[in-house]
Amino acid sequence: MGPFARQERGFGRRRSPRLSVGLRARLITPDGTQLVVIEDLSLGGARITLPGREEFTVCVLRWMDFHAFADVAWRDGASVGLQFDRALTEETLEATGQYAWHRPSRERQQRLGLRAC
Questions:
Q1: Residue ranges of the domains in the chain?
Q2: d(CA 29, CA 15)
Q3: Which of the four pLDDT bands, split at 50, 70 and 90, describes residue 13?
Q4: Is the pTM here over 0.85, yes or no?
Q5: What is the pLDDT of residue 18?
Q6: Tens digit of each residue's pLDDT (9 = 90 or more) over 30-79
Q7: Contacts from 105-111 at CB under 8 Å and sequence distance 24+?
Q8: Closest by CA position to 75, among listed 57, 93, 51
Q9: Contact status, residue 102 vs residue 117, Cβ threshold 8 Å
Q10: Whole-Å CA distances, 14 to 48, 67, 73, 77
Q11: In this structure, is the dihedral angle defined by the CA atoms of residues 22, 52, 68 and 56, taken in order, positive or negative?
C-alpha cells in the first residue's frame, strides 16, 4: 500500500491491516439512514462511530463512490465494528486511503463550508 492515512498492522483477531481514515459516511439500516464516521477501514471490515445508539444488526456503509454490505461484529457505546459481507478490493482501500490523506482537515472543511456526504 502507498503512503496514505495511518496504517495499523493486524494484531489479535484482525486478519488484515487497518487504515485510520476518519471519513464521514452514510450508514443505511432497515430503520433509516444516518451520518457516521469511519474511524478505520480494512479489507474485511470497519470501525465506525455513530451519532447515537441505534440498534441494528445489518447495514450498508456508503462512502465516496463505494459501498459495502455488513453485519455488526461488536459494539462499545457509539463505536461499532462492522464485518463486510465481501472483502473490499485493494483498489477501494487504496482510493479511500488516498482521499483520507489528502482531504482538508475538519476545521478547514468547516471554514470552506464543505458538507458531509
A1: 6-112
A2: 26
A3: low
A4: no
A5: 84
A6: 999 999 999 999 999 999 999 988 899 999 999 999 999 999 999 999 99
A7: none
A8: 57
A9: no
A10: 16, 21, 12, 21
A11: positive
Q: What cell does 84 get? A: 463486510
Grid cell locating 12? 489479535
Q: Which CA distances in Å does 82 have to 3, 16, 102, 105? A: 25, 14, 25, 25
The CATH number of 6-112, from 3.90.1720.10, 3.30.450.20, 1.10.443.10, 2.40.10.220, is 2.40.10.220
Sequence-ordered list of residues with C-beta below 8 angstroms from that of 100, at least 6 positions apart, any chain: 4, 5, 19, 21, 22, 23
**Distance, CA of 45 to CA of 71 (rounded, Å):** 9
Of the ranges 6-10, 18-22, 77-81, which is most confident? 77-81
